[in-house]
Design a protein that fits this description.
The protein has a 6-stranded antiparallel beta barrel with strand order 10-11-12-15-14-13. It has a 6-stranded antiparallel beta barrel with strand order 4-5-6-9-8-7. Strands 17, 18, 19, 20 and 21 form a 5-stranded antiparallel sheet that branches. With 494 residues, it is an alpha+beta fold. It has 6 helices and 22 strands. 49% of the residues are buried. It folds into 2 domains: 297 residues, Thrombin, subunit H, CATH 2.40.10; 96 residues, Pdz3 Domain (Roll), CATH 2.30.42. The longest helix is centred in the first third of the chain and has 32 residues. GO terms for molecular function: serine-type endopeptidase activity. Keywords: Hydrolase, Membrane, Protease, Transmembrane, Transmembrane helix. It comes from Streptomyces brevispora. Pfam families: PDZ_2, Trypsin_2.
Amino acid sequence: MSTENEGNEGTAAEAASSVPSAPPVPADAPQGPPGSTPPAPPQPDATAVQPQVSPAYDPATTPMAQVPAAPQPQSPPPAPQSAADAGWPPPPPAVPAYAHGAQGGGPVWGPPGQLQAPGAPRKRGAGGLVAAVVVAALVAGGIGGALGYWAADSNDSSNSSGSTTITASANPQDLKRDPGTVAGVAAKALPSVVTIDAQGGDGEGGTGTGFVYDKEGHILTNNHVVASAAENGQLTVTFSNGKKYGAEVIGRAEGYDVAVLKLKNPPQGLTPLELGNSDQVAVGDSTIAIGAPFGLSNTVTTGIISAKNRPVASGDGSGGSNSYMSALQTDASINPGNSGGPLLSAGGAVIGINSAIQSTGSTGQSQAGSIGLGFAIPINQAKNVAQQLIKTGRPVYPVIGATVTMDEKTGGAVISDQGTGGTDAVPKDSPAGRAGLKPGDIITKFNDTVVDSGPTLIGEIWTHKPGDKVTLTYKRGGKTSTAEVTLGERKGDS
């Protein structure tokens, strides 16, 4: 799995991992032209023509953009099947697949599916997908307009016969919805959600999402959304009312894939979104996602919490480090451009930051679309990171001080024989060393959470703070033991 994504570090807390890139999700299968003449019914003595059955879809081998062959001209074509740092330094770079509207790879976690961050950086020329969506919308709008005109003309004709046409009131008051409804939550949250345009000095850039964090003008988003413009680029923030403001990066945390911006001239009356408690989220809870999928700002989608504590690793596709999270999984529709946007509870509180999506195959492209597998950074973790970035401008990562392998199917996080550059995998003065851990030990649990790999361990470690005491369960020589570890810290440059 993986995603954010849209950032990261080499060997994570002395662990390393690489993640594959994720591809784009295909559009719906083409439909027949409107108004086409249906085929004549077969004669009684004629042999019925059976539609051809396309071969079974294998997500590991079938290109995402490939549409199964249509059976017969008379039959509608079938729709395509869509498919931790244990210590430090961070893990090796991975190509991410983000939920941010840009080109580049995306976060990934485990075959055959690949996680793509909705919003990874892209070249300016990669706006084709967004353009395609806009064109499609215009075409659809033209058809809808024609149908609307025909309906209006029919009404006018009937009115001349004495019928009465009743039109809906244009009074905004009539559009108000109860606070507990999706429409009510969206209406309250949209003014505090922004679309972020990031343009780097080298021409790279992309579109992502963010939201108002406090009344001082801080905006919370993903690191991969703003990474391309963080040093010498340009950041523009657009509110739902169309007003634009320049912004600058206050701090970035690649490992967490979190970034904080500050509006250069913040308007009066900013309303921060309410932050919820992601630890109290339950599987099955309703979710609402807001973002700018493929550049379509102020898009609202709904779903549920599909799973919790989902290990996700992602990279920014630029040779940077990986990010790790113990993510909230949701089936709310999340696409490139949603990265950095809020995942809300049914009550309207932010419970996560949408960061990654999973795609089902590879077409050699870097975009991906929603197949109901989206991943969000729990807001409790993101809030801690944001507070640190606002305070110091630099992230702080909790570590156990042991280098672990990043193999996926090892039955746990295996402590390596050596650390980075031939150093000790478990320094004696590190938290793990003081707790008695040794190279070759296999960590199988972090507190009560089962650990099946190095990335899972790192994701769990990073949900805590330096100084927290945790219990590690590990195997050595076939024997299971536990160790109490006080997490250390490592300050990052970004």
